[in-house]
């Protein structure tokens, strides 16, 4: 059952679409904008390490645990600029999430990227974050700006849920401040 707060009760028909993977929608949108962003700039596809800090359970929760994550982003490939990613996230309420998936960097300008992503993973419940299953799916959208030497700073919004594979599927939404460091600095 999709969980909403009283504020969103009137918007329930809109949020029914949230049962569809956000990543699929984001990737389709990204593909539509891809022809505009097909610039051959080598720093855009370099492998990187991403570090993030933010809050979980931002739409429904009262406690909103702080979370931290670290990711390794491989060199992107294909015309779609797909980037394999593996990461680990931990929250202040002792929840953890290990995941691996794909991101798609969409370069709107030479210095501004929008990055939708999808990653299945293993979730271990914490004190307040209980998502109903160990198998969870993370859909995300990130916007970042590029600075000197390829360092990127941005904001990310993500949704983690089990997609209805278990009877309990509350899901959680998170925001993060993200710093992305190229592994091989320019």
Name the features.
186 residues, 9% helix, single chain, globular, Porin, 2 helices, mainly beta
Structure description:
The protein has 186 residues and is mainly β. It has a single domain, classed as Porin (Beta Barrel), CATH 2.40.160.20. Helices cover 9% and strands 46% of the residues. It is built from two helices and nine strands. Strands 1-2-3-4-6-7-8-9 form an eight-stranded antiparallel beta barrel. The longest helix is centred in the N-terminal third of the chain and has 12 residues, at 22-33. GO terms for molecular function: hydrolase activity. It holds the Pfam family PagL. Keywords: Hydrolase. This is Acyloxyacyl hydrolase. It comes from Puniceicoccus vermicola.
CATH class: Mainly Beta
Helix tally equals 2
Report the mean per-residue pLDDT as an integer. 79
- Structural class by sheet pairing and helices: mainly beta
Distance between the termini: 47 Å
* Count of individual domains: 1
CATH topology: Porin
Organism: Puniceicoccus vermicola
GO molecular function: hydrolase activity
Keywords: Hydrolase
Protein name: Acyloxyacyl hydrolase
């Amino acid at each position: 059952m999709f969980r909403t707060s009283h504020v969103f009760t009137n918007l329930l028909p809109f949020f029914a679409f949230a049962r569809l993977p956000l990543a699929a929608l984001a990737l389709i949108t990204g593909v539509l904008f891809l022809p505009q962003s097909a610039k051959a700039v080598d720093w855009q596809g370099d492998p990187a390490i991403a570090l993030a800090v933010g809050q979980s359970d931002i739409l429904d929760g009262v406690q909103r645990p702080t979370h931290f994550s670290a990711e390794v982003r491989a060199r992107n490939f294909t015309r779609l600029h797909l980037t394999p990613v593996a990461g680990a996230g931990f929250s202040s309420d002792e929840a953890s999430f290990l995941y691996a998936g794909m991101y798609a960097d969409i370069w709107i300008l030479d210095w501004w990227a929008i990055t939708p992503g999808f990653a299945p993973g293993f979730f271990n419940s914490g004190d307040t974050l209980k998502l109903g299953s160990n198998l969870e799916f993370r859909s995300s959208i990130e916007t970042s700006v590029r600075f000197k030497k390829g360092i990127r700073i941005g904001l990310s919004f993500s949704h983690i849920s089990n997609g209805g594979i278990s009877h309990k599927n509350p899901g959680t939404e998170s925001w993060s401040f993200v710093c992305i460091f190229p592994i091989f600095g320019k």
